[in-house]
Amino acid sequence: MLISHISDLHLGYSQFSLEEREEDVYQAFHEAIDVSIKERVRLVILAGDLFHNPRPCGKAIITLGNILKKLKEKQISSVFVLGEHDISRLRDVPFVHIYSNLGLAKKLRCDEPFKIENCVLFGADKERRGSIDSLIENMRHAEQLAKQYGGKKVLVLHQGLADFNKFAGELNSADLPAGFNYYALGHYHDHHEKRFDFLGGPLAYPGSIDLTPSEGIKEADKGFIITDMSGEEPSTQWIRLESRRQQFSARIDYKDIANEVEQIIKKATAYDKKPVARIEVAGNNIDSKVISEHLKKLNDCCLHYIWQPLEEHLAATTVYDSKPADIDSELYRLSAEALGSDELAKFTISEVLPLASEKDAKSVLEILWQAYKLNKFGGHNPK
Hints:
Blueprint: E1 2-6, H1 19-38, E2 43-47, H2 58-73, E3 77-81, H3 97-101, E4 106-107, E5 114-116, E6 119-124, H4 132-146, E7 152-158, E8 182-186, E9 192-194, E10 203-205, E11 223-228, E12 235-240, E13 247-253, H5 257-269, E14 276-282, H6 288-295, E15 304-310, E16 319-320, H7 327-339, H8 342-357, H9 361-373
Parallel strand pairs: 1-2, 2-3, 3-4, 6-7, 7-8, 8-10, 13-14, 14-15
Antiparallel strand pairs: 1-11, 5-6, 9-10, 11-12, 15-16
């Protein structure tokens, strides 16, 4: 039996508030589903962060609903767990539950198995660090229930493992129960796969299907995993998504800006879709008007671009073209610049800021203290 393992869809996210970028995410999801159908998978696992916002826009709601309906019509089952982007901090009922209530997909649990052919699946939603002990207990309970069934056992989670990112992980691989044959994870936006001797099978993160705010502008492949459960041990194949809009960074010399902009134009026009670009301009006595005059030539070949002057005697300040910048990306950039660490910025934005915005000072202090005790600052000295 083949399983399609997709995670971190972030449906509804529109980089730079551009409608084209929102559509890119939908197209990537459609491609992943179309390939899955073509490969005759029997099950689609959506491992969390289905939406970018717990209160998703109408287009995102309809897109996911139509795809789940399409899968059901083709007799392909679909299951899901919730990521932090799916869960409202106002303790509202997560919107994704509507698809389970309508019978379009199954919400996985640790106390209730989902059976399909020779497989049984359990799953748990994203838990914060303060609830990890409860999550570990629930996983142990799922492991005991799984022993009652023959065939392959699958555990689906949306959690970060410290084995792959010592700063962002809430769990260690040793915290996972050993009695499963495949560990289908979401949360990390890069593709990771590893086999641990003390676990019953491979562990995999497919990565996000498109670039997300925390990743910025960069060249990166995105995709999903098709897992064959028919062998003695599950085997995985990572599928690269071909429909993605490319993004890249380039550094150019201010003294030769005319020629170097032409090189960027050649690179941009080689793509099927207009790319997104980040340009660093190095030199002295940089005149932003001169740069803007040259870079405006990119308007015809790039969907969007930002540029940053690099001068030794000036603080690095990002200057954007006339199009609005992506607020999330800029927040991450400024945080990383102020804190001196990408990892600290991600921790602050994803863990501290939401609690601070709710004026939950007690929880903010608790999570900072726990991070400090666990050496999550990686040698940095946060102030």
